[in-house]
Amino acid sequence: MIIAVDGPTASGKGTIAKGLARHYQLPHLDTGLLYRAVGRQVRLNGGDPDDPLDAARACEFPDSLLAEPMLRTEAVGALASRVSVHKRVRAALLARQRAFAARPGGAVLDGRDIGTVIAPDAPVKLFVTASLEARAMRRFRESQSRGEDVTLDAIHADLVRRDARDRNRAEAPLVEAADAMVLDNSDLDAAESLAAAIALVERRRGEQA
Ligand code: C5P
Known about the structure:
Blueprint: E1 2-6, H1 13-24, E2 28-30, H2 31-44, H3 52-57, H4 74-83, H5 87-101, E3 107-111, H6 114-118, E4 124-129, H7 132-145, H8 152-168, E5 181-184, H9 190-208
Helix pairs in contact: 1-9, 2-4, 4-8, 7-8
The protein binds cytidine-5'-monophosphate.
Cytidine-5'-monophosphate binds next to helix 2, helix 4 and helix 8.
């Protein structure tokens, strides 16, 4: 079973995807991490994230980069959002994601275009979302726990920018797949969100049986 989990920044889709992978004993790929690695590599190369060639060159990052904790920071997330608009970057990361989705036995992938581009035939698609305020507060708490010096206002403004960039880009924009089940978890904690996600997966599996 392939489970595609898409949604905006800080919607909780990563936590839900991880929980679903554990529940169904499937491998999980956080595709945002690949874009974050490209964003970080552009900086390490001294390149410009808005330049398509610099960004494409950065797709040849070493796998060891994926394990760097700093990939999770707000600063690298913002770089990832900038490099992800380039067609060449998306093309360079496509095969790796598709190969993961095609694993025998299935997989859980989370990102922005899993249900629309990477695995359009996935039998189960979730679109996880939450209000801007809830997402900003979650991201703020995460940043604080990592000791990052960032304000709630700055995070709020960055989310607005990233939502706009992800939704309005020409290549693989963030959009609900027609057959995606929407899960708004603004008022749910992590455990409740996962329970709701499992209930949706089970419903879809029941419909398909
Ligand atoms: O999910 P995460 O916040 O780690 O993603 C970082 C950025 O990478 C996103 O803002 C988005 O622009 C980009 N991304 C993407 N397609 C994906 C996953 C992430 O464009 N499948």
